[in-house]
Amino acid sequence: MINNKNRQGLSVLFKASFIVASALLMAACGSDSDDDGEDAYIKLYNASPNAPAIFLSLDEDLDEDDDDEVEITYSSVRFGEAGTTKTIPTDTYFVELAWQEEDSSARSDLTLISQEQLRLSADSIHMIVLAGDILAPNILSYDIPVIDDDEDDDLDQFNLRVLNISSNTAAYDIYLSDSDETFNEAELIGSFSPEELSDNLKYDQEQYLFYVTEAGSNDVVYQSNEVTFSLTAQYVLAIRDNTGVGSAPVVLDLLSNSATTNLPDDDSEARVRFFNGMQVSELLPDYTGAVDIFTATNAETADVTSLAENTFSTALDKDNGDFSVRIIDTNSEEKLFANQLLSLPENTYKTIFYYIQEEAVDEDGDGNIDENDDGIVDAYRPVLRTLETTNSEGSSIYEHQVKVVNLVDNLDFSRIVVYFVKSDEIISTAEATRTVVFGNQSSLFLRNNTYQVFAVAEIDGTEIILTQSELTLDEDSGPLFMIMVEDVNAENEVSIQWESQISGL
């Protein structure tokens, strides 16, 4: 059943083009078929970089009818992911794509992107691909025959199709080689134009490398890491635009019936940024409030200099790989941190938060930190710690990821509850909330709106508002960090800082 309140402006808001990519796909006229009731399959792949999470719904009849055998909305699918392949009786359905604009995720409250009446055929996987700009989405449809080949098990083979959904108007060539070979030994799989899905190909279950070149060229623009195929299964290898930090123009997504594996370019660069959340403390006399950070062993020149407390460094572009980080005090030149392992996978953007935790000392090792039993810990020592996070790759225009980071070390509380309160809510009714323990992070997605943000802790049995802030999200907003830090100038010595996750891109 359909609520038309979100459907009326469909032709104005969205211009969706349905491309029929197989002769097996046909719009149904409601006629019966001999294969009704047999198994058909449907799958959604979200390849639109500025799209929110997308819901797929199936309905036999748009009229309100309690007797509908099938009226279902599946879990949402975010950018760069494909939903699991769903089994459905063969029939004619209204197929909808929609996103959640309001609090409710009920189908009648979703905002519709597209609606099409389709015949889902027996023993066929109907794959819907959402590509391009979500404001004018390109919706591609493909029918993939289900392969039930006993020889695949006997011969230890798998099935592979290639799909090109990059925005490049030229074709790409795809090669593969054994994992211990190079491009010189690679076999050409084929040349694939935009929106083209290949025929099925069979390969032995082994470890492979994939390569991408522009059509007709021998210059490799992309090479995967080793990819292991150990199951008799059907895969789609999708070529899409690279939205990460590396210079490769494309990445590959490997889609199976139940999972999506993102395959970045093996040689892609990485990016890293540092946040100095270390507070000046009498327990750390060699720290004066600013640090220099080195990411190369025995390097004489710092990558980051004079990074003050509660501030971010500039973003550093690095080759992917492993690094040994050391930190010295800018003024005293005393070493504060050494040999920290920093691992930067290809095509990723990481942020590293440094902070200090005061840890009770058991001086004689007997397990008692209050030797004189006066109810007071005898001594504390400072422990320098890190919190590492991988920044968001996609940037939806309708909803935005917020990572909440708690760097407040306080003996009166260990966790902070954060409430994102809309104009028609109060704290006790706010739906968007996260509880974050000191030294940890928690993420959530918030839709465009204005929020009053409250950081609340329980102290001696009473809830105390530590600090509050306002957050306005619109189409120009991106993924954000919300960082709670110690601030001696604030009323409860806690303040909130906001920072873009993709700053420096």
Automatic annotation (TrEMBL):
Signal sequence annotation: 1-27
UniProt keywords, alphabetically: Signal
Give the protein's recorded name: DUF4397 domain-containing protein
